[in-house]
Amino acid sequence: MIKSYYFRATKLFNHMKKIILSTALLFAIGFTAKAQEIKYGVKAGVNFATLTGDIPDDVKTRTGFHAGAVAEFKLTEEFSIQPELLYSQQGMKYDGIDADTGIKVKTTWKMDYLILPVVAKYYIIEGFSIEAGPQIGYRLGAKIKAEASGFGENEYDFKDDTKALDFGIIGGLAYDLPMGLFFQARYNAGITKINEGDDSVQNDVFQLSVGYKF
Description:
Blueprint: H1 2-34, E1 37-53, E2 62-74, E3 79-97, E4 104-125, E5 128-148, E6 152-157, E7 165-176, E8 181-190, E9 201-213
Antiparallel strand pairs: 1-2, 1-9, 2-3, 3-4, 4-5, 5-6, 5-7, 7-8, 8-9
């Protein structure tokens, strides 16, 4: 039975990777036909992530990172489309009291995604742009690390309690230097629930990035 679940999970993961990569390829083909200029690049940065919705009010941010590839399709001097494919560490931190022992437990909810943002960029002045657009993410893993005094650390997998796909909306600012170096600050707001069950929980991530376009 374990083998069966493993093969099913692997098959689903490979299927979702194909969907995300195919979507990125279709975007690239469509924009390439109309683009005046195309730039490819890489980026990486830090995530300040938390979860919102039906959760306690005193949750803390989980600091993680993101990294991946970008492509900018310049349609006019002021307007371009930029799809990206990134690995992104998300989730939250929460300190609570164990109901059985009364001991304070520190938990880190580690949710990792393969995300495909597609942002529209409008250049207000040369190099400086505002960004907005949709994002689709595929959940790669979901684990809770729990640490209690005197009991050490334990890690639990809760992947089955989460949804494979996540949809969100992005807004942010970017600045591109003539040499190819660029900087970004973005807010990613989840618009669909990421959990199974009656409660509704969404991703909430603030990103700072640095990258280079060729």
